[in-house]
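Researcher: Quick one. two chains, 479 residues in total.
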Amino acid sequence: MVEVDVRGFVCPVPLMRTKKALESEPTQIVVFADDGTAKTNVTYLLQDEGYAVVVTDDGDDYRIEGNK
Amino acid sequence: MGKRRVLGPSAWMLGATGLAIGVFAAYLVKQGNPGNMGLCIACFLRDISSFFGGEAMKMNGFAYIRPEIVGMMLGATVAAISFREFKARGGSGSVYRFVLGFIFMVSALIFLGCPVRAWLRLGGGDLNAAVGIAGLVVGIFVGTVFLRRGYIVGRVKKLAKPLGFVMAAIAVILLVLALVTFYSGAAPGGFSTVAKGAKKTAEGVVFTAEKVISPADASMVDGAIVGADGAVVASPDSVAAAAGVPGGSRAPLYLSLVAGLAIGVAAQRSRFCSVGGIRDSILIKRYDLLVGVAGLVIGVAVMNMVFGQFNLGFEGQPAAHTNFLGNFLPMVLVGLTAVFMGGCPLRQVIMASEGDLDAVAAILGMMLGAVASHALSLASTGAGPASGAWVAMGAMAAVTLGIGFMRTQKA
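Model:
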């Protein structure tokens, strides 16, 4: 499993870091984000890369989990 | 196991948003907005600045609180709250973003439009916009080089929730001022406004079909404008040849407001950005934001043809000039500052409305940049760039690159 923490960063940084983490082609990836745009962008990126995505929102941060 | 796809659902949502913005923009021009200016974040923020800057800042020809901007702010705030994305945040280089916003605006007013308007101009057949967009691509490319090397404007901090409502509060104040001006026929508090349909002669006389506005003691006599002392200040020929002032060209207030609200909601939901598409295609080979821009150009081009507003060429384009470098160079700066700010001005308006105080700083920078641009006569006219524009661009390029180097830290 690969973890990416992009809390505190705004686009395009979250996308760049997620994209970089995908280079190792993990079967599971978890991204932590705190920005609505980052959440949406990362979700779409993972879906387009073929992951099944589950987003959980604890009211403060988003946990975006992608599984292949 | 899913398959990799190039264009996912986000691309179609962005395309639909772009298409809607394009269609709205063409319709707003048909309803009275300036040519190829159904929506222009730079121009419209400038017009709002002019309401406060007025004659003293040489901005009285523009003064009008554009309801499109106010609507976008309120629409984005409501959408962000409804979808639990409203978050008060800031502290990531607010000062840098203010300066970048300032430079962005001065540059945009040399080209005569923000990236949104550049695409809209292209969809109106204005080929000068293609020159500007080429500059925009170069500027964005330079920005991506910095991003690859570790440029980060700053780390965002969470703030107390009420602070997130600063932009929405400003929008409400602007809306009240706009409505008071609309119903009373005069700007309150000594601020400036331009009457709808106002025209200006070569001598600088401003008038509407009903009355002469400036000089205030003049009046219309047999097609000429005559001063209080009986001397002709503008001949009938001059009056007939007078051109409309930008601030006087406007769609009906409620139409603009509703269009702005719809665009604000759609842009908040879709993350539409007029520079992000080019940035992402270069940086991470993602094209979904670019589909949004394509939708905008198609939407506005088709509707312009339907309304008979499409005019292909370089010459005689509304609110544009034909100076090649005067279109190309400022848009390089626009592209670079937009990447450094984290999005085009439309995105800044949306993010500010979602609670991002750094985006508010960028917008205030833009509004002050507009005042400086006109007060120092740096803004272009239809005749071309002002003489001071070239020096200003050199200085602004140095400051922008300086910020780029300062905020680049090797990871």
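The beta strands of chain B are 89-90, 157-158, 199-200, 206-207, 212-214, 219-221, 224-226, 232-234, 243-244.
Researcher: Thanks, that's what I needed.
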